[in-house]
């Protein structure tokens, strides 16, 4: 028997032992389960951007896998819905919750000890920086385009020891936005648009950043939301925007980048186009501004390791898996739990 054959046999035996052990503890593993070292990722549940469906997914998971150890939410509203389901099932403390983004319910859950931690973005900066760079481009300054076509907005890890300070800062940013919103709109400046993916309170901070940028740079910004969270509605918004002569630039979080490439290229032919929050790298957008979502997923994976140092079963929840940020975050979680080397 060769050394390679021996290694393969040992790996197969280990997988069989892990699966058998999991089955003995309770629920049977689904065919989609991923064994990542001492962690078992049962599956990834999507909800198409609908909070009610997200909660139903969490409830069904708790019923089907009563021995589950953790639930991981990758979009802002996922963990709050998981938290509601856990409370309804009276399983607080039995199921660890790990989050992405800064929903108020998640932050309160961290304060109360029900959520282990969250990896937060800076949506205020998505709005503010998008407007800042679009204004520079409209003025003819192409030097602001990064050589690698990516401008990272760093993430932060929020846990019980820093949640109060972080939440206080969020409230200050919101107050800045409200002040700017109430101020008289500038006249004579460039006109831009900021297009999001799904309706969610997460985007209120980005809107505040857009309002502040209006005042700081003397510009106007149309803030657009696809209210049904569909790529079709987002496409309609983009088509309408490029029909307006006054719009000089658009920042968008694409819902379905693979199938939106042709339209995004059409938009890029008409105005300066940036992607924020989630990228469409195959399109002609000038650059992406936002989170490195893969690294954010790795940070979430580290939180899972902290919450479950001995390993365990977990389920991942996210809105849509055809959106690049969801794919990248999910892969980051999986790679971290598998202890894969960090890619260069």
Strand content: 15-25%
What number is the mean pLDDT? 92
Provide the domain count. Answer: 2
Helix content: 40-55%
At CATH's second level, what is the architecture of the largest domain? 3-Layer(aba) Sandwich
Outline: globular
State the strand order across the main sheet. Answer: 1-2-13-3-4-5-7
CATH fold-level topology of the largest domain: Rossmann fold
Radius of gyration in whole Å, from Cα? 22 Å
* Low-confidence regions: 11-26
SSE order in H/E notation?
A: HEEHEHEHEHEEHEHEHEHEEHEH
Number-wise, the strands total 13
Spell out the CATH superfamily of the largest domain: Response regulator
Q: What's the story with the biggest beta sheet?
A: 7 strands, mixed
CATH class of the largest domain: Alpha Beta
Number of helices: 11
Structural class: alpha/beta
Distance between the termini: 36 Å
Overview of this structure, please?
- Helix content is 47%, strand content 18%.
- The chain starts with a helix and ends in a 7-residue tail after the last helix.
- It has helices at residues 3-25, 51-64, 78-88, 104-112, 123-138, 163-182, 202-217, 231-241, 257-270, 293-307, 324-337; strands at residues 34-36, 39-46, 70-73, 96-100, 117-120, 150-152, 156-158, 191-195, 220-224, 247-252, 272-276, 287-290, 312-318.
- It has a seven-stranded mixed β-sheet with strand order 1-2-13-3-4-5-7, with helices on both faces.
- It has eleven helices and 13 strands.
- Strand 1 and strand 2 form a beta hairpin.
- The protein folds into two domains: 26-120 and 293-337, Protein-Tyrosine Phosphatase, Chain A, CATH 3.90.190; 123-153 and 160-290, Rossmann fold (3-Layer(aba) Sandwich).
- Helix 2 crosses helix 3, helix 5 packs parallel to helix 7 (202-217) and helix 10 crosses helix 11.
- Residues 11-26 have low confidence and may be disordered.
- It is an alpha/beta fold.
């Amino acid at each position: 028997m060769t050394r390679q054959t021996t290694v393969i046999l040992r790996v197969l035996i280990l997988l069989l032992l892990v699966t058998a052990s999991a089955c003995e503890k309770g629920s049977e593993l689904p065919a989609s389960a991923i064994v990542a070292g001492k962690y078992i990722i049962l599956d990834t549940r999507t909800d198409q951007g609908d909070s009610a469906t997200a909660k139903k997914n969490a409830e069904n998971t708790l019923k089907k896998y009563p021995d589950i150890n953790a639930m991981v939410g990758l979009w802002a509203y996922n963990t709050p819905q998981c938290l509601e389901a856990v409370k309804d099932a009276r399983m607080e403390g039995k199921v660890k919750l790990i989050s992405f983004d800064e929903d108020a319910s998640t932050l309160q859950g961290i304060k109360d000890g029900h959520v282990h931690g969250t990896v937060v973005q800076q949506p205020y900066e998505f709005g503010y920086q998008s407007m800042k760079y679009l204004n520079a481009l409209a003025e003819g300054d192409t030097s602001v385009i990064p050589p690698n076509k990516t401008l990272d907005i760093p993430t932060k890890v929020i846990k019980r020891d820093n949640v109060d300070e972080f939440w206080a800062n969020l409230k200050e940013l919101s107050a800045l936005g409200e002040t700017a919103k109430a101020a008289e709109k500038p006249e004579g400046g460039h006109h831009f648009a900021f297009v999001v993916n799904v309706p969610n309170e997460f985007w209120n901070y980005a809107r505040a950043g857009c309002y502040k940028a209006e005042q700081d740079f003397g510009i106007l910004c149309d803030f657009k939301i696809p209210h049904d969270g569909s790529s079709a509605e987002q496409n309609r918004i983009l088509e309408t925007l490029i029909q307006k002569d006054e719009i000089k630039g658009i920042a968008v979080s694409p819902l379905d980048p693979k199938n939106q490439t042709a339209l995004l290229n059409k938009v890029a032919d008409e105005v300066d186009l940036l992607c924020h929050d989630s990228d469409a790298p195959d399109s002609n957008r000038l650059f992406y501004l936002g989170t490195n979502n893969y690294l954010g997923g790795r940070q979430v994976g580290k939180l899972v390791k902290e919450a479950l140092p001995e390993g365990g079963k977990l389920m991942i929840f996210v809105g849509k898996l055809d959106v690049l940020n969801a794919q990248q975050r999910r892969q980051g979680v999986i790679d971290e739990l598998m202890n894969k080397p960090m890619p260069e």
